[in-house]
Amino acid sequence: MRTMDNEMQRRRRRAQQRRDTAKAYGVMVGFFAFLMVMAIYFMFFHNKDSEGKAAELPKVVNENKNTQEVNFPVSSPDESAGTPASAEATSSQPAQTDASAAESVSSQDAPQTPQNKVTAPVAEGHTLEVKDGVTYVDGILVVNKTYSLPRTYAPGGLAPEAEAAFNQMANDSWGEGIGLFICSGYRTYQEQEEVYNRYANERGTEEADKVSSRPGHSEHQSGLSMDINTTDYWFVGTPQQLWLEAHCADYGFIIRFPEGKESYTGFEYEPWHIRYVGVELAKKLTEQGLCLEEYLGITSDYRYATDQN
Predict the structure, then answer these.
(1) Full-model pTM
(2) Distance from C-alpha of 222 to C-alpha of 275, rounded to nearest angstrom
């Protein structure tokens, strides 16, 4: 009798083990199916053009093919206005040749003319170079609302060092139970034009400028930036977002548009958007709580954009 009881107990244990194993496999299959659905969505549907006429965009002109080197003094941004204090002083001065020029200067969307051209504030202790239309500050490639990339700048994909750093980060995060993947990486000038037009058609250019870059002004074109997992705000507070924010600097990335830095970056908080700058600089910026514009003493404002002046 005791032998039969023992045998029954062994059978029950084996049955329970099989049920536990089946549940574990079910969870794994469900998780991988979710990842595949998300990947398919972002590959084929997320960036489709919206219907209707595309918004009219400023054209890229004045692609500088020469190399210049300039040293310039720091001006700190005015937090309430979202532009540097010295920039406001410049834009508030009346134009000498045309009374209506002052109104054009105050409009961020209006292309600048020789009569109302605004010069970007300069920062002391930093070196700016323009090589084949690409701007470098202290040797760091810069792309924002002030500094653009030429239409012809096309590395063809993510920079090898940025891609390798992300792969290592994703591998390490996976070992801790955190899944990270690139939902949007390199974009050409033309692809960014489509993305921006979609936002502009849906929200108007003023709102579009807060969340999307005009063509030529997107870091995605540089091959150094990527969006992780999603571009929706449900990402905030998730284990993936918290892990990314806490560890991305260890792999050379920064959260490019941090919360509370909108007046410097010109963009709303994007916890998913990371930019590769190298481990040393990424850790320095993160530890000091600085965004790239603060650290380099530069602006991010379409009024100073060379492709509109």
Answers:
(1) 0.63
(2) 10
> Is pLDDT of 240 > 50?
yes
Which tokens belong to 242? 């918290």
Domains of the chain: which residue ranges?
68-141, 160-300
Burial of 288 (0-12, 13-18, 19+ CB in 10 A): exposed
Q: Are 186 and 220 in contact (CB under 8 A)?
A: yes
* 215: number of Cβ within 10 Å: 26
Amino acid residing at 201: N
* Dist. CA 97–CA 145, nearest whole Å: 27
Cβ(123)–Cβ(75) under 8 Å?
yes
- Banded model confidence at residue 116, pLDDT cuts 50, 70, 90: very low
CB atoms within 10 A of CB 287: 9
Tell me the C-alpha distance between 212 and 197, whole Å. Answer: 9
Mean of pLDDT values over 293-301: 95
Provide the token pair at 110: 């209006």
User: What is the residue-wise DSSP string for 104-156?
Assistant: HHH-SSSPP-TTT--PPP--TTEEEEEETTEEEETTEE--SSSS---TT---S
User: Distance (Å, rounded) from C-alpha 222 to C-alpha 187?
Assistant: 8
Pairwise CA distance, residues 7 & 140, whole Å: 71
Read out DSSP for 211-252?
A: HSPPTT--GGGGTSEEEES-SSGGGTTSHHHHHHHHHGGGGT
Tell the residue number behind the tokens 């020789």, with chain if given. 114
CATH architecture of 160-300: 2-Layer Sandwich (3.30)
List the one residue out of 97, 77, 96, 72 whose CA is nearest residue 87.
Answer: 77
| Nearest Cα residue to 161 out of 54, 266, 282, 79 | 282
